[in-house]
Amino acid sequence: MRLVFLGSGAFGTPTLEALAAAAGHEVVLVVTQPDKPAGRGKVLTPTPIALCAERLGIRVLKPTDINEASVRAELRGIAADAWVVIAFGQKLSRELLEGNFAINLHGSLLPAYRGAAPIQRAVMDGCAETGVSVISLAERMDAGLVYATRVRPIGPRATSDEVHDLLSTLGPEVIEDVLARRRAGTLVGVVQDESKATRARKLSKAEATVDLTQLDAPSVRARVNGLNAWPGCTVLIGELPVKLLRVDVCATSTNEPGVLRADGKVDARSGAIEILEVQPLGKRAMSMTEFLAGRSKLVGERLRPMMAAEA
């Protein structure tokens, strides 16, 4: 099949690589977001998909507005059998899509977690499993027909970044499955059950902390691991800002909630957590054992939420 691939984030990279390598497909064009400033030097940087496409020798288009008339005319003039859309970052208009077969890989088991942060919200909610869905594009966000799904468990210590990378590897197989059934004329979509639809709103820096006195241990674990890597989960240990990278649930003690123990464990409102990995402000990531080796004076200090205004 002749394919147009629309994507920006790294979530689509495994699928683009697989489609480009497949003997039965030709990716004739990749559409991605424009280069954006990144890093301390604010250097204009291509998206992960742009870098991948350039490495594969595929022509790349970087429109500021994909629905602008000239861009729309160029895309609609390509004789493609299918458009594959993964983490593109712009809404495709009805005028652009009309008459084209377009599918989207979404990082949840729809209709659960429609929206911008499905993977992070699933981890933050403590879900035991998640997955991907391949859907048609619809007027309402992530509300199209479901053509295929794949399910994977979420490990108790898994971070959002790790789940993201795991789910991205499901893309090649599930997208190929849908394209094969389209080619064979056997593709049938399932209407989503609107009564089961939930939202996955975009994450914000205002969420990037945790109050151990207000949550039980499993909820603390889900929140901390779900906020890794962005926007992170920063607390004050005494007066030192520290980003919690990974925690797990452990046996409770008789300590007051929020007080750091010498073994790196902290009681929550109920139950306790073990802090496994941290990153002090301006420092590298490290294990909690390594962190405490040079900071024993912090034992007995309280972990307090660090508000966005303090960061």
How are the SSEs placed, and which strands pair?
Blueprint: E1 2-7, H1 13-21, E2 26-31, E3 36-38, E4 43-45, H2 48-56, E5 60-61, H3 69-76, E6 82-86, H4 94-97, E7 102-106, E8 114-115, H5 118-124, E9 129-136, E10 146-153, H6 160-168, H7 171-184, E11 199-200, H8 217-226, E12 233-237, E13 240-250, E14 265-267, E15 272-280, E16 286-287, H9 288-293, E17 303-305
Parallel strand pairs: 1-2, 1-6, 2-5, 6-7, 8-11
Antiparallel strand pairs: 3-4, 7-9, 9-10, 12-13, 12-17, 13-15, 14-15, 15-16
Helix pairs in contact: 1-2, 1-7, 5-6, 5-8
Compressed to H and E, one letter per element, the order equals: EHEEEHEHEHEEHEEHHEHEEEEEHE
Q: How many helical stretches?
A: 9
How far apart the termini lie comes to 50 Å
What is the 3D form?
A: elongated
User: Which percent bin holds the helix content?
Assistant: 10-25%
Beta content comes to 25-35%
Number of strands: 17
Uncertain runs = none
For CATH, the homologous superfamily of the largest domain is named as Formyl transferase, N-terminal domain
CATH topology title of the largest domain = Rossmann fold
How would you characterize the largest beta sheet? Answer: 7 strands, mixed
